[in-house]
Specification:
The protein is mainly alpha-helical. It is built from two helices and no strands.
Length: about 70
Amino acid sequence: MDNLMFPRMPVWAKTAFFLGDALLLGVAVVILLEAPRPLPLPQAILLTAAVVNGAILFVLPFLLEY
């Protein structure tokens, strides 16, 4: 009973999640660098959405594997 094998997520699938996370964080950096100061509300909302979705993409493979 101790050596039951549970299905694990393949490495390439985790890599896709991490690349998506990096892409979203890159979009957030571009928004932050290119937006005028002070940061307008639409750009602040897009920046926040990109960071939150990037964090979700980073955590999701670990949750799916658990």
